[in-house]
Design goal:
This protein has about 200 residues and is an alpha+beta fold. The chain has 2 domains: about 70 residues, Glutaredoxin (3-Layer(aba) Sandwich), CATH 3.40.30.10; about 110 residues, Glutathione S-transferase Yfyf (Class Pi), Chain A, domain 2 (Up-down Bundle). About 55% of the residues lie in helices and about 5% in strands. It contains 8 helices and 4 strands. It is globular and about 45 Å long.
């Protein structure tokens, strides 16, 4: 059985977990808590020498990381539903939308880390503001292009839903006040894709 190292609140891990559910691969993958800084980091290091989650270890011991690579691998295991279009501009557009969503999540994560790992008197407010500006700019770009969710998620939809869910969890719901299209889209996604509620982050 494959082993997926992740953590409940990780937006990138959630992206992979949603992919597992959507692709119907739950019986082939064991979910393992990825310990990035505790007593069991050696186990994670055996899955990813960078000590980052998510990481997937295949049945033959092959390491697969990061989240995009894992999702692409999982998408190729079963033919339907297709999450990543074949090579061409549709695929490029999908990957670009996903990169925007991942960038939002990455900037939000850096804000969280600055708060979590630095003493109050050593936090760099300019750095936090810079990351928040990336979050805001990314959300504005998504708001300007998002449409009605069609009911069949692709990889970029999963990435965006994961990023928005992480904002709600860690940075609060303030982003929703001025982005009604994104709010409506996320509501539509959650209603149509059970994997969203099944992977709801905690802690």
């Amino acid at each position: 059985m494959m082993r997926l190292y992740s953590a409940p609140a990780s937006p990138f891990g959630r992206k992979v977990k949603m992919t597992v559910i959507i692709k119907g691969l739950g019986d082939r993958i064991e979910s393992v808590l990825g310990d990035t800084r505790g007593a069991h980091t050696a186990e994670l290091a055996a899955a990813n020498p960078l000590l980052k989650i998510p990481a997937l270890v295949l049945d033959d011991g092959t390491q697969v990381y990061d989240s995009k690579v894992i999702c692409e691998y999982l998408d190729g295991l079963v033919p339907s539903p297709v999450l990543l279009p074949p090579p061409g501009m549709d695929r490029i557009r999908c990957l670009t939308r996903a990169a925007l969503a991942d960038g939002i999540a990455e900037a939000a994560l850096l804000i969280v880390y600055e708060d979590r790992y630095r003493p109050v008197d050593k936090r760099v407010l300019e750095w936090i503001a810079r990351q928040q500006a990336k979050v805001d700019s990314g959300l504005d770009a998504a708001e300007g292009t998002i449409g009605v969710f069609g009911g069949d998620p692709d990889y970029s939809d999963i990435a965006l839903a994961s990023a928005l869910g992480y904002l709600d969890l860690r940075l609060g719901t303030g982003w929703r006040a001025t982005r009604p299209k994104l709010v409506a889209w996320l509501d539509q996604f959650a209603a149509a894709v059970p994997a969203y509620d099944m992977t709801m982050p905690v802690g």
